[in-house]
Amino acid sequence: MRFGLDEDQAAIFEMAAGFAAEHIAPHALEWDEQKTFPVATLRAAAALGMAGISVREDVGGSGLSRVDAALIFEALSQGCPTVAAFLSIHNLSSWIIDTFADEAQRTRFLPALTRMDRIASYCLTEAGSGSDAAAMRTRAVRDGDHYIIDGEKQFISGAGASDLYLCFARTGGDGAKGVSAIVVEKDTPGLSFGANERKMGWNAQPTRAVRFDGVRVPVDNRIGAEGDGFRFAMAGLDGGRLNIAACALGGAQSALDRTIAYMGDRRAFGRRLSDLQALQFRVADMATDLEVARAFLRHAAAALDAKAPEATKLCAMAKRHVTDAAFRVANDALQLHGGYGYLAEYGIEKIVRDLRVHQILEGTNEIMRVIIARALLGGR
Ligand SMILES: Cc1cc2nc3c(=O)[nH]c(=O)nc-3n(C[C@H](O)[C@H](O)[C@H](O)COP(=O)(O)OP(=O)(O)OC[C@H]3O[C@@H](n4cnc5c(N)ncnc54)[C@H](O)[C@@H]3O)c2cc1C
After folding, report:
1. Given pLDDT bands bounded at 50, 70 and 90, which one contains residue 3?
2. DSSP for 43-58?
3. Does pTM surpass 0.90?
4. What is the pLDDT of residue 120?
5. 125: Cβ below 6 Å to ligand 1?
6. Separation of 380 CA from ligand 1 center, angstroms?
7. Which candidate in 126, 152, 226, 362 is catalytic?
8. 30-46 pLDDT, tens digit each
9. Class of 7-115 per CATH?
């Protein structure tokens, strides 16, 4: 896990792993069962610089690289992938504001976001447009120095609890070029939320629809120029996908570590499970798959840091490969626990439930293949 890291990177990993072990892991099962969104814990993570990881330091960010971010999310997820993944979504919104907003907007929004005094949600998906996000129908119509927003976003992580909604809405014609990015603040009249969705996993963070009913927002809340919003949304997802993959990796590593410990204790046919070669081989494959995933994830993160031309393709490959491998490993870990893996108290079934959605959101793994194939084949 630590091979290839320099001293600073190893310290970053240790810091996040220590935080996860002390402040997240002991509560993860209870938060899942009670559907608790642990805001105080998220703020404690923010105090250590984990709410504005790749945000510049003048507004309270940590100014760290994408490789550093991947290390942080892998380490945090060993405590709970759901809590870490929410932090990754908050970081995604903050990064977009830091990268594309003007100076006045950066100083207005980011200090509170990096402290996590205010929490941000990323609002792209709609009921009729998920993978085909550019088909969105939420509209922002200009009215003097305001926009009036009408529409509805679906599946928004943190909705209802968040203070800022980075909303992608149509200000122009059809397609990606008609979309703008607009920050909507929580108490704006006309903004409302659906019920917390009942989900397979990710129970320690709320998921709700966000409704805009004549929501009046100053034009000053638009990030960048009209029509640039979709580009910002996609740029943010390169890093977001690495982080979602890192969260899956950390969750799977935790499932594997628990499995190895369990196999040393559990006996069948007069032997420990860890003495059975068929199971030894299975664990060997699981560990190998995670090491390959880890190496490739860090490679893709380095490509994004280097602004390599193929970075988007590599981020999509990493998201697809790592989240598939991590889910497989978590599911195998459950199998190796036998019936106990199916019981909530062992914590393995929660990891399986949590990791399943990493194959779906921030672009499904089919859409990752679309991106990869487009990069390889282009218009051919
Ligand atoms: C728990 C949770 C949290 C989420 N959080 C957020 C959030 O915070 N913000 C946000 O904006 N969104 C969020 N999402 C939404 C998520 O990003 C979408 O669900 C996802 O992008 C897929 O969209 P969809 O559900 O509409 O599926 P669809 O787009 O309807 O896809 C259905 C199936 O068809 C496949 N498919 C579609 N098009 C193609 C194609 N061209 N080629 C091959 N296969 C294709 C898909 O891969 C999928 O298997 C969240 C979702 C969940 C479940």
Report:
1. confident
2. HHHHHTT-SSTTS-GG
3. yes
4. 98
5. yes
6. 27
7. 362
8. 999 999 999 999 999 99
9. mainly alpha
Residue 310 a catalytic site member? no
DSSP string across 297-355: HHHHHHHHHTT-TTHHHHHHHHHHHHHHHHHHHHHHHHHHTGGGGGSGGGSHHHHHHHH
Atom of ligand 1 nearest to the CA of 364: 47
How far apart are alpha carbons 57 and 53 in whole angstroms? 9
CATH topology of domain 120-227: Butyryl-CoA Dehydrogenase, subunit A; domain 2 (2.40.110)
Question: What tokens were used for 260?
Answer: 């190895």
| Class at the top of the CATH hierarchy for domain 230-377 | mainly alpha
Domain-wise residue ranges, the chain: 7-115, 120-227, 230-377
Ligand 1 touching residue 9 (CB < 6 A)? no
- Ligand 1 atom nearest to CA at 360: 20
Determine the 3-state secondary structure of 12 from DSSP.
helix
